[in-house]
Amino acid sequence: MSQQYTLPPLPYPYDALQPYISQQIMELHHKKHHQTYVNGLNAALEAQKKAAEANDVPKLVSVQQAIKFNGGGHINHSLFWKNLAPEKSGGGKIDQAPVLKAAIEQRWGSFDKFKDAFNTTLLGIQGSGWGWLVTDGPKGKLDITTTHDQDPVTGAAPVFGVDMWEHAYYLQYLNDKASYAKGIWNVINWAEAENRYIAGDKGGHPFMKL
């Protein structure tokens, strides 16, 4: 069997994002949901390897969706955990990202207008997906975009993302997505977002390198 991906540890305790994201949600989201994507990605890559060795082209084609879905889930969640931080560790403090803050204000007129635009995008997602702040390069043009299901961001560099799958909020907020979207601003890791914006890396996810 080839080398496998593993579940990355959280950079903070499971209860550290309360009251905005409960300990129960964080434990289930990380230990169960993210682990499932990691397991699915490893299984799909092993199936791809065997299909290639057998020159089984139909199997090679059929396994691509599983690689995309589970690989995207692993990428998105690995980014998500790091773009959150407890309030006591600086979560929610936009002043920790002076370069990014200035770019946001230039693009949207004010930080509050940006938050309103981002939340409108989040609440407009139909079904399951993600909302993202992205840049087209190092300290580049900012934009708000969405991805469906577990599709990762492509063609741009993710600055930060918000998981809008029900498993990210339902046990705490039920169907009140607006309160989840409002609360998560209190735990955004702006220092991490600043680093991603300055780097503008469109594909360099170190956790995806075996």
Which helices and strands appear, and what pairs or packs with what?
Elements: H1 23-53, H2 57-62, H3 64-82, H4 98-108, H5 111-123, E1 129-135, E2 142-148, E3 157-163, H6 170-173, H7 177-183, H8 190-199
Antiparallel strand pairs: 1-2, 1-3
Helix pairs in contact: 1-3, 4-8
Query: What's the alpha carbon Rg, rounded to whole Å?
Result: 18 Å
- The first-level CATH class of the largest domain is given as Alpha Beta
Note the gap between the termini. 13 Å
Helix content: 40-55%
Number of strands: 3
Q: How would you characterize the largest beta sheet?
A: 3 strands, antiparallel
Strand order of the largest sheet: 2-1-3
CATH architecture of the largest domain: 3-Layer(bab) Sandwich
**Which strand-content bin applies to the residues?**
5-15%
Choose one word for the global shape. globular
Task: Find the structural class using helix and strand composition.
Answer: mainly alpha
Number of domains: 2
Outline the low-pLDDT stretches: none
- Number of helical segments with 4 or more residues: 8
CATH topology of the largest domain: the name is minor pseudopilin epsh fold
Order of helices and strands: HHHHHEEEHHH
User: CATH H level of the largest domain: which superfamily?
Assistant: Iron/manganese superoxide dismutase, C-terminal domain
Fold and architecture overview:
With about 210 residues, the protein is mainly α. Helix content is about 50%, strand content about 10%. It folds into two domains: about 20-80, Orthogonal Bundle (Helix Hairpins); about 85-205, Iron/manganese superoxide dismutase, C-terminal domain (minor pseudopilin epsh fold). A three-stranded antiparallel sheet has the order 2-1-3, with helices on both faces. The chain is globular and about 55 Å long.
